[in-house]
Amino acid sequence: MKTLLLLSVLFSGLAIGQEITPTSRIYQSLNFADDMNFENLDLAIERQMKSFDRIGLKGQIKFGSKVYPKTVLKTSLELLRTLAGNAKNCLTQNPAEQCMAEFNRAMNDQFAIYIPVPKKSEPGYKSSNTTQFTSYYSPDMVGSRVRSARFNKAIYRKPVEAAHQNYSRVNIDYYGALEGKGYDIFWVEDSFYDLYLLHVQGGGRIHVHNPDGSEEIKYLSYDGKNSQPFKMVYHYMMAQGYLKPGAAGVPDQRRFLEENPDKEEEVFNSCPSYVYFKESDEEPVGLNNIPLTEGRSLAIDSRIYKTMGLINFVKTVKATHVDEAGKVVKAPYSRFYIAQDTGGAIRGNARCDLYSGYGKLAELIAYNTNEMGQQYFLVKK
User: Fold this and answer.
1) Is the pTM higher than 0.90?
2) What is the distance between the alpha carbons of residues 172 and 192, in angstroms, rounded to a whole number?
3) d(CA 265, CA 195)
4) What span, in angstroms and rounded, lies between the C-alpha atoms of 342 and 305?
5) DSSP assignment string, 52-93
6) Of 17, 30, 334, 353, which is most buried, counting CB atoms within 10 Å of its CB?
7) CA–CA distance, 260 with 368 (Å, rounded to integer)
8) Does the pLDDT value for residue 7 go beyond 70?
9) Sorting pLDDT into bands at 50, 70 and 90, what band is 254?
């Protein structure tokens, strides 16, 4: 009995600190084409490395049937940085076909490739272990630190007093519940709908016009919210007949509100939640305060993948432009990403939210991505 107890304690001790990922190894060569030609990859890796240095990598992580020390996440990123750097150097002197062939041989030789195994409840379960992809972005705002006729809508930091934290969206935006209390950090020229989208995304970038005529770029990061429920306004707009099925996207919502300003307050009253922001010199952050990198960061379910910094290679479809008929045109692509964020709606073994960054194209991609595709985790052999 004592021997059994000792063995039980011993084996349970081995499992301490071990993270298990719902993945399976595949033994096939991939074409690691990167549609951004490695742009921003070094930056995303550097930001992840700083996070690893700050928080450390203790314990083990299991991919498929193999257990690795968690330090493999760091050495995997170092290897990817080296191989991508070699490819970029090669491209300055040699044909692209030669350089990418060498890069692909090295990647397939030196990395073990794993895929997520979807649960039965996930869309990818019946689609050959594919992953569901959506996208998010950081809205661009134009504003000032000083209120004026042009810059007349406020962005607030979270109030210290509990009594001031829980005003509704309409009370704050339309009835000035927080005006004059010292919590405004910027005043913007953008619409209340733009502010709502900023709240949906949880972070953004602001082009600041200073009184002396100079301009600067600052970033807005999440600083908490009131305790009231969040509801996407399009649900209310659909229920009221303001939008029609098949025409309820962001452009449709924006068009309705611009054409019917008398309905604005009514629509926003359906979403009493309000998000507060803090000013930053760095881009909006994901988990572990890692600044997100345009086109390189992605969000996964942190309840399942508890350690950030996993290398992802993604093959799916993205929006590229809007044609003359107003139709969104999409095209397949593949790219390296790093798992650096999570989200309340990102739930599942095979579920990703891809960070598209800033600007109109980023917004187009974010609001027109709901695709199935392939997700691969890369681990140094």
Assistant:
1) no
2) 11
3) 13
4) 10
5) HHHH---SEEEETTEEEETTHHHHHHHHHHHHHHHHHHHHTT
6) 353
7) 24
8) no
9) very high
